[in-house]
Amino acid sequence: MPSETAVKTRVELYPLLAGIAAATDLVSPVLVNHHRRVAFVAAALGSNLGLNQEELRRLILAAAVHDIGGLTVGTRLEAFEFEVATPARHTLPGASLLAGFAPFAELARIVRFHHLYWQHGRGGAEEGEEVPRLSHIIHLADRVAVQIDPTREILAQQREIVARIKAGSGEMFAPDQVEAFLELAGREAFWLDLTSPGVGAILEQRFPLAALEFDRGQLLALAEMFRRLIDFRSRFTATHSSGVAAVASALAARSGFMPADPDRIMIAGWLHDIGKLVVPAEILEKRQGLASGDLAIIYKHPYYTGEILRPIPGFEDIGQWGSLHHERLDGSGYPFRMKGEEIPQGARILAVADTFTALMEDRPYRCGISAAGTERIMRDMVEYHRLDRDFVGLVHENISEINDRRHEAQLAADQAHLRFLEECRLLAGSSEVGDRCPVSSRGQA
Q1: pLDDT tens digits for range 11-38
Q2: What is the CATH classification number for the domain harbouring 353?
Q3: 356-382, pLDDT tens digit by residue?
């Protein structure tokens, strides 16, 4: 993009929100469509309560990403208990992620308090801070959605779900919001819409949202928010996408690839692993060899990267490159088994950048490999026709500069990760920062 002010990118909100929701809901089959369902119930409640258009917009946006801070399977599944024991484990990270992206910063407080009980009015404030009314609406919508049993006919569950919500009126939920829900719950169509596979399309049709226009800085900030969502699930992945983006953008600049829009390959580097949200953190942090079942899960992640990103208008090429970053020129890659000229240049750059970064950074079972060792491994991969010879050649011709860029990007990402953990109160016992290779020694010659 030529300049910060000359060009703005129009982003349709529903495909963007669907991408975020799909990404966070991939961690378990139990969670599929959860964000869409909560957004649908919240929107219907907000409409019944007479919210104006701006309030309704903020409500839908916040509901569509309310569990974005659930970075592990355990944390997300814990939030499916009707009474959540430790909601801060996902509400604080969610608020922190959203606060870092200016167009969504207004949603941070809503998400932070979305598990707060009404407590007969005392829930209107917390620690001296006013709690948004929209947080309580999302809490009610969320508790409706988590009660749905996908193995049973929904209309047979209607009465027991309603009874449990009514029982929480006053203590868990604001009474006027419960009354608005009861009016909705009396309509069979409400429940059929809620459990329809097309609930996202129904929401979009019934409650349309205007597109947002992002300038260059905002688009990069959006990609950075996605990047943190992807990488911050494990201390071993916390800096990976930053390193890949730095290397990929350096290679693109030196090769003349898309010189008019160099940001796109950097964004692709930040987002190439978004499909890895389907991989449990327990697999990412395994210190021993991966079992065949683990590998079967790992092999799915590039496919889901494409599924998440390609539907977002303007992200089609980014989604394509990301979905192909594990393809190899000899056809030995995954998941599409493409070979040779079938693999586009952007995907080839990402494959080289991903391999280089992965070899030089820490893994659960080893510290980063030296630059010399990485060079030998990548030359072998060229000889076996797995990586693009020209892009690997560019890495080795500029090894010091490219490695410095990778190292600086990953050091900054590591510091951002530690700040994130501190903000979200996730550093208890220093377990997150212990037993790691020093950042200053990673991937050095």
Answers
A1: 888 888 888 787 778 777 788 899 999 9
A2: 1.10.3210.10
A3: 999 988 776 667 788 888 989 999 999
Bridge partners of residue 366, in order along the sequence: 363
Exposed/middle/buried for 148, CB within 10 Å: 0-12, 13-18, 19+?
middle
pTM: 0.88
Q: Is 212 helix (H, G, I), strand (E, B) or coil?
A: strand
Q: How far is CA 244 from CA 148, 240, 399, in A?
A: 40, 6, 14
Rounded to whole angstroms, the Cα distance separating 233 from 392 reads 30
Q: How far apart are CA 118 and CA 124, in angstroms?
A: 7
| 310 and 169 housed in the same domain | no
Q: Is 48 in the same domain as 169? A: yes
CB–CB of 288/365 below 8 Å? Answer: yes
Residue 8: strand pairing partners: 215
What gap in Å lies between CA 201 and CA 212, rounded to an integer? 19
CB 355 within 8 A of CB 391: no
Element (H, E) at 88: helix 88-99
**Contact between 135 and 114 (Cβ < 8 Å):** yes
Reported as half-sphere exposure (CB side, CA atoms, 13 A), residue 234 has a value of 18
pLDDT beneath 70, residues of the chain? 1-7, 259-260, 364-366, 427-445
Are the C-beta atoms of 182 and 198 separated by less than 8 Å? Answer: no
Asked if 291 and 376 sit in the same domain, the reply is yes
Q: What is the pLDDT of residue 233?
A: 85
Q: What is the pLDDT of residue 7?
A: 67
Burial 359-380 (b: 16+ CB within 10 A, else e): bbbbbeeebbbebeebbeebee
Judge contact between 42 and 124, C-beta under 8 A. no
Q: How far apart are CA 281 and CA 403, in angstroms?
A: 27
Tokens of 400: 């010091």
- Using CA atoms in the order 344, 345, 351, 354, what is the torsion angle rounded to 10 degrees? -130
Q: How far apart are CA 330 and CA 347, in angstroms?
A: 14
Q: Looking at the structure, tell me whether residues 332 and 416 fall in a common domain.
A: yes
Domain that holds residue 278: 232-441
Report the C-alpha gap between 246 and 251 in whole angstroms. Answer: 9
In the chain, what's the furthest Cα-to-Cα distance? 70
CA torsion angle for 192, 196, 201, 205 (degrees, to 10)?
0
